[in-house]
Every structure is written in C-alpha cells, then in structure tokens.
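Notebook B, p. 112. Complex prediction, attempt 2.
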Amino acid sequence: GQSLEQPSEVTAVEGAIVQINCTYQTSGFYGLSWYQQHDGGAPTFLSYNALDGLEETGRFSSFLSRSDSYGYLLLQELQMKDSASYFCAAPNQAGTALIFGKGTTLSVSS
Amino acid sequence: ETGVTQTPRHLVMGMTNKKSLKCEQHLGHNAMYWYKQSAKKPLELMFVYSLEERVENNSVPSRFSPECPNSSHLFLHLHTLQPEDSALYLCASSRPGLGDSGNTIYFGEGSWLTVV
C-alpha cells in the first residue's frame, strides 16, 4: 500500500515561519509534491522534490530526505492569505496518478 | 483560471436521478483524472485516463461511470447515488507519466455534489 501522513492542523501568526511535515510509505518512490488549496478553490501545485535537499521558491521551500521517507514544506514570512490546506502527494507505484495525504489546515492570525 | 474547467459547479440530485459532471482541459495534456474530496478524508483517486484509455479504476462503485471521448474532455456519469456520495468531485489533467521529474497535475475548481 501507499500512504502519506501529515498533521491535520497548524496555527501561526503573521510574519512567523511554519513547517508542515510529511512522512510517506510507498512501494516505489519518484518524488514528493506539495499542493495548496484555499476554501472553495482548486488544489494548486506549489513544489516538487525528486532528490534529497531543499528547493526554494520565494517564501516557500520544500525539503526531501529519501532515506528517512520524510519531507516538509516551509512557509516563511506568513501572510493571512497563506491560510489554506496544504497537501503532500506522491505518484503511485505505476506512476499513473498522485496519491495525497489528508492535508494540513494552516490558520494564520494577525 | 487553471486551464481545467468543470461544470456544473454545484449539483443537487435525488437518489434516483441520472446526471453527469463534465470536465474540459485546455492545456494540451493527455492524462485526465477524477478525484473525490469529502470532509475529513484525503483526496481520493477515482479514475485515471491516459491517452483516452482508462488505466486506473480505484475500486469505485459502478454507480459512477467515467467517459473520456477525447484527450480534452472527461465525464463522470452518476446514477442511483447515495447521500454518502455527497462530496467535491475534482477533475485534473497532466502529461502522462507522473514518475517523470517535475510532471504535475492541474486541478479544476471542482463540482460540489449533494445527494438528497
């Protein structure tokens, strides 16, 4: 089977830094993706890690450790608009579809 | 605007009705997907089409019937649904082969379905 585990909720204040962790169990592994979904909206792609290490895209960074089956999404200089659900995802064994974690709801307060 | 358009955005149907959800992508992709999103459950994969052939059917009840007439269009035909089928149904598209580095899927805004 294949599963991705992430915390259900995280809260933070504006300007802070928050890290959302994801651990995965997969039969085969290609890489880890992160998606953001605002209430009532479509999940949108944030980042992808195929290799170990840190990928930085503006205020958002994503990290992967294949040996630990672990990754995280790091959000810096939090803004109110970052309040959303964040999903980690990985391709299934056949590489035909993405399997998603249950999502982490981030609430940013002023 | 994500390049993936779903209609209708909201649908209320009775358990004896037959309805269809429609998805159209304008991204030139060859793979299309249906996912179901319920409260407190992750995005659940339902069906995958690659190059207009169904490659995944994730143990979905037969009251859900997908159709992919061409690489730009995907339908989900619904009949004799149950109230527990009420959820957000998301369509997505991508290039085939998600094992390739950096290949990602693009979602539509979803169709909110309520079964009464």
